[in-house]
Amino acid sequence: MSTTGQEDVDVVEREPTAEEIQQALTVAREQGLPEQFHVQWDETGRKFWMLKSKRFHSVPSAMAHACQIGLLPPAKMPESYQDKELSPKELEAALREARQQGLPESFTCRWDNKKRRRVWYTPDGRRVKGGIPAALKTAAELGLISNARAPTDSNKIPLTTHEKIQVGLQEARAHGLEGWNVIWDSKYNQKVFCSPDGARNLYGLDKALAYAVKQKWLPADKLPPQFAKDRELTNEEKAKAWKAAKKKNLPETWTVVWDSKQHRRVWVAPDNRRCDCISKAVVYSVKKGWLDPTIVKPQKTSLTPAEEEAALMEAKERGLPDCFSVRWNPKKNQKQWIAPQGKVCNSIPAALAYATKHELILENDNDDGPVAAMAPTKRKRKQTRIISPRPLKQAALTQLIDAALAKDVQESVPQTAHTNAATAVEEEDVVDDGDDNVVNDIDEGDIGWTKFQDDQDDDDDNDDNGVNDDIKPADSELAKETASISGAEETTGKTSMSKHEVDIAMEQAELRGLPGGWTVSWDLKRKRRMWTSPCGKYKCRGIPSALHKSMELGLISYPSTPVQDASQSVSTDARAASAMRDAKHRGLPDSWTVEFLDDGRRSLRWRSPDGRVAKTLVEALKMSVAMGILPPDKMPVEYRERTLTAEEEERSLKEAASRGLPSGWSVTWNSSRRQKIWISPDGKKKCDSINKALKVSVRLGLISQDALPARLKARDFTQEQIDAALADARAKGLTCDGEFRWRLELNTKKGCRRWISPDNKRRCDCISKAVAYSKKMGWVPADSSKSYYS
């Protein structure tokens, strides 16, 4: 059962006040949330609960996760997350909705406790992947309904106009709008509510309710929230608005508020300028110099001659007469067809229907009759919701953007790769500065397992499996040469890579024996490549670990003789050619050569023109700059040396002091790791985060244990939790007694548990992995329980 509300997205956090923390903890403890969870706030002011790397935006979702991993007994599972069945009333409502949309009565509905939603089944018992629209398509494929009733991409709910009006009347009666009439506006594809006095025709039920309250036909408590005069945006609404604003690179100095007169959101600039949409705010930011024009994506305003010629040729092949012309609509981001009479059609089928209706289909030269036209059976409209009676004029917006942008914007914007995969530095290319005093929280584990997998859920029934599927490159692919350093993790350097770099990475993986289906992406948090398995559940930080995981998943067979790397069967020339292409793309001079060491793994090394050896490509690039054979401006941005400015250092120290770090600590920038490093007063300890610096301060005696935040203190396990964990392990087939006994190890520092194998060679952070390893070693029968890798 997957836990609703769980996210693994990196959020810029703010420091809450002591009163907020105490109040949130008091409410949570009263509801039964374990002490292992701690509360934090994100940049939008939204509160969330954390356990290790998992986040929950409500106490019930956190309690449900605690019950799954054994921190709470099953009886404490919130009611909304317990396994249930549809009540007769809910089942009747679901069937009535399906029958209104045309689904046959032979289809049945059930409740899926794992997905926490309704699912539909065919008459022969097969499950439908999706909701009612998918069930309608399945019914059409089985011949139970006609294809005309099956939903299409442009019409998800296949209702007639009469049925839409009846639905609108039912909505009006349910909200107390007696005497109101409902009509259907085919132009805007919306229901129109007509008042009893005939004075108003309102688009939308909320506007009808607001007018009824104003006329005192309904009590004041029926007024929709968005029409309240003193209404303010909630934290969830602000977070949703900022999510859309960040995609368009709107500066964070803007604020979003609710305008009670316009009944909509407006964006307020630092100089109190108000804009009613994000696009206008972006244009104003460019005009004022708050936003770099080069990161604003130029909008398409017209068709090129080649595109126009191709569109006209396609229309002619489908039977559209030559009297129609084509243009591009920037607002709808689509082509439009213009008839001689000025009629605008949004698609070729619509233009064919108009031409047939007005007899614009011309006769051909052979007098064989009119040209065959593919007339549509039904005019398709894209369902849209009218936000304002005065929509934004895209042509005016485009002119403002064009005026704000420089003439050479297109030359300065690099080519964008149409891929979600991204690469930057190979695992061998990361320079180690030789500092052994850096405190790391990455636990030792199996080969190929990343910290990301160490933080996975202990419950093998969790569909999410602790994998963050939302790892994506930044909205803009422009690398920022300098970035202001704040208390949060900053993403300097590359955020994505070109198509050429993706091809190089996939070629290297293929040469080293990685099976097909693996994909490569860029981990923004760890600033390195990450390989994702074909099933999407597992992520490995290198090709060797991906090879080991492929063996565990059965994608490739185990070697008959132990080898350290499957790449040993690959020719050296092929690897050298691939490495040289990658190095040349990153700017390494041609005078460098590549060679391989005879160390069992054939590690790659770079040799300079004067005979010196560089272990990594980054080191080779830096040596080239020092030798003068590579200009400094040709060095990739992510590898350039930089130091903290006085302002950045002051801001970092101020933040550290506010979080309780004692005086005497200093901060510097590590260009190799591309992050801030905190140095202890004696200069012997170096930490890569403030939290680690606080723990070191306790060990050095600079602060007391009580001064640490609650989330950094050691967490104790009760005997009830230990007994529950052992009982859960036995129920899932893990041997906890006898000769092949697994031992339970409790990490009080992190508040997690780990299972140690009988031979002390394996540590598993969840029971399912331990069971799978026991099957592999032959300690338990192969059919004792469900396999983690099946």
Tally of domains: 8
- Work out the strand percent: 5-15%
Strands of the biggest beta sheet: in what spatial order? 1-5-4-3-2
Radius of gyration: 31 Å
Unreliably modeled segments: 1-13, 153-157, 362-401, 404-492, 560-569, 784-790
Specify the overall morphology. Answer: globular
Count of DSSP H/I helices? 21
How many β strands by DSSP? 30
* Separation, N- and C-terminal Cα atoms: 17 Å
| Class per helix and strand makeup | alpha+beta
Percent helix among the residues? 25-40%
Major sheet details: 5 strands, antiparallel
Mean pLDDT: 73
Kindly describe this structure.
The protein has 790 residues and is α+β, with helices and mostly antiparallel strands. The protein has 8 domains: 6-81, no CATH class; 88-149, no CATH class; 161-227, no CATH class; 235-295, no CATH class; 305-378 and 391-404, no CATH class; 427-456 and 475-585, no CATH class; 646-712, no CATH class; 719-777, no CATH class. Helices cover 30% and strands 14% of the residues. The chain is built from 21 helices and 30 strands. The strands form 9 sheets. Strands 1-5-4-3-2 form a 5-stranded antiparallel sheet. A 4-stranded mixed sheet has the order 18-27-26-25, with helices on one face. Helix 8 (278-288) runs parallel beside helix 11 (394-404). Mean pLDDT is 73; it is low at 1-13, 153-157, 362-401, 404-492, 560-569 and 784-790.
